[in-house]
């Protein structure tokens, strides 16, 4: 193995729908990819399935309880210092009201307007898969 190999990090994202609108969260300006919008989620930890990670991350980041639904798409993106493998899933809102612990803003937006927001690059294939759904 080469010593200069970039780390590959598996991350999950929840496409949360409520009343026909989808949740986008804006990253803190001070964070990596600051100010960009994303489907909320986070890193998969050791001995955790992507589905378990997504439910945990959405509770930690937004104080909501969700149930992970169907897989939408995977996206692999090279950010220069690391490679992100992003797995996007439909997430069903069960309970709770959003509290922004890990983001500076959030919006509920129609599927047709998601691309009006400047998204993290790895999120675009997930948006495309969502839009392609009937």
TrEMBL record:
Keyword DNA repair found: yes
A GO MF term: 8-oxo-GDP phosphatase activity
PROSITE patterns documented for this protein: NUDIX (PS51462)
Record key words, sorted: DNA damage, DNA repair, Hydrolase, Magnesium, Metal-binding
One Pfam entry name: NUDIX_4
Record-annotated Nudix hydrolase domain positions: 7-134
EC numbers for this chain: 3.6.-.-
Necessary cofactors: Mg(2+)
Enzyme class: hydrolase
Entry annotated with the keyword Magnesium: yes
Biological process (GO), any one: DNA repair
PANTHER family for the chain: 8-OXO-DGTP DIPHOSPHATASE, CTP PYROPHOSPHOHYDROLASE
Family: Belongs to the Nudix hydrolase family.
Protein name, UniProt field: (Deoxy)nucleoside triphosphate pyrophosphohydrolase
């Amino acid at each position: 193995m080469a010593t200069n190999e970039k780390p590959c990090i598996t991350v999950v994202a929840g496409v949360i729908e409520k009343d026909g609108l989808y949740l986008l969260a804006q990253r803190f300006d001070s964070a990596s990819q600051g100010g960009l919008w994303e489907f909320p989620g986070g890193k998969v930890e050791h001995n955790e399935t992507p589905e378990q990670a997504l439910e945990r991350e959405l509770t930690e980041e937004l104080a909501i309880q969700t149930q992970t639904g169907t897989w939408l798409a995977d996206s692999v993106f090279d950010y220069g210092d690391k490679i992100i493998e992003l797995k996007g899933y439909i997430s069903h809102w069960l309970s709770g009201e959003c509290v922004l612990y890990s983001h500076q803003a959030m919006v509920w937006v129609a599927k047709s307007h998601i691309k009006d927001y400047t998204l993290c690059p790895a999120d675009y294939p997930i948006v495309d898969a969502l839009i392609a759904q009937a």
